[in-house]
Amino acid sequence: MGERYNPFLSAEDRALDAFASKVQAWSLTRQKTHGSYGTFGQAAEAMKVPVERIAEAVEWHYWMFSHDDGPLADREIDHDGE
């Protein structure tokens, strides 16, 4: 999966965009092998990052979201159009 380049994004936003795409790829792969997209906590553990970083990536990404409003680690990742 190649990184999309948008000249209007800051370097920080480009990094977040690239990370969000990695979270999406992890989540879609997990869905194929486990039957669910996974939680923020599972993604954070798999990617060795704080759960807040996963929440930021899910919020940023155009196709990912969560319906949950409980603790961050327990929130389920969902995908629109996947």
Question: Biggest sheet, open or closed, and with what strands and sense?
Answer: 2 strands, antiparallel
Number of H/I helices: 3
What is the succession of H and E elements? HHHEE
Q: CA-to-CA gap between the ends? A: 16 Å
Q: What is the helix fraction of residues, given as a range? A: 40-55%
Please give the order of strands in the largest beta sheet: 1-2
Q: How many strand units?
A: 2
DSSP strand content: under 5%
Describe this structure in words.
This protein has 82 residues and is mainly α. It contains 3 helices and 2 strands; from the N terminus they run αααββ. It has helices at 11-34, 40-47, 51-60; strands at 64-65, 78-79. The protein has a two-stranded antiparallel ribbon.
Can you tag this structure with a few keywords?
two-stranded antiparallel sheet
Q: What's the topology here?
A:
Elements: H1 11-34, H2 40-47, H3 51-60, E1 64-65, E2 78-79
Antiparallel strand pairs: 1-2
Helix pairs in contact: 1-3, 2-3
